[in-house]
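--- STAGE predict ---
source: upstream dedup step, 1 unique chain passed
mode: sequence only
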Amino acid sequence: MDGFNPNATTVEEYLDGTPYFRTDLYSTCGTVMTHNECIALVDGWDLKFSPELKTPEVEMPFEGYTQEQYAQDMIDAYKAAGIDPSRVWAQSFLPDDIFYWIDNEPEFGVQAVYLDERVDTVEGYANATASLPDLAARGVKIMAPAFFALTKLDNDTGAIVPSEYAVAAKEAGLEIVTWSFERSGWLNEGGDYYYQYVSDAIDNDGDMYTVLDVLVQQVGITHFFSDWPATVTYYSSCFGL
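--- STAGE serialize ---
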């Protein structure tokens, strides 16, 4: 993942932003690829695609270029390369992008992934949970909040269990994808952003497996973005997933 030092006073300090629990061992100045080059590379390995339409940092339309054109251009790149839509999971944090693909590119829209950041506040979490049936009715098939939003602690037992959001998503018939595993530091003090709803039950790194098991076996996630593949790969191999 990208990193930066927000307290930097020089360019060099700003770029030296790798978190203390990560390494720069593999930061070897790789060549940045274009989207089209990336499509060709991934296709050459017969893999699947999960492109994210990044939210613009400028106000749209920008010099006449609209958000709709932007959303269409990403899909057009896969069509031009002859990629079957069933291999593409287009993602966006903006619901209008998801709705655009559903309405205008239904073969891609049927598995468009709504990255749901509304859950970042208490009020937003409640509103997001309540909105899931309407989103399903609108044609959204896949919801993807950060994984903290999918678990909570049982008030009676203290066990980690599916959250209200997770239960509502399943009841609405929505598939659940989540992110991002292995992005936290050491878990001996309860974790951070990604463990905020279950922090009282987190006191060592091994607890990530407990959370992962609940997400897979009880919440029923189908995909999990991870910054480092070892943990989820080991778990998947053990359970034959």
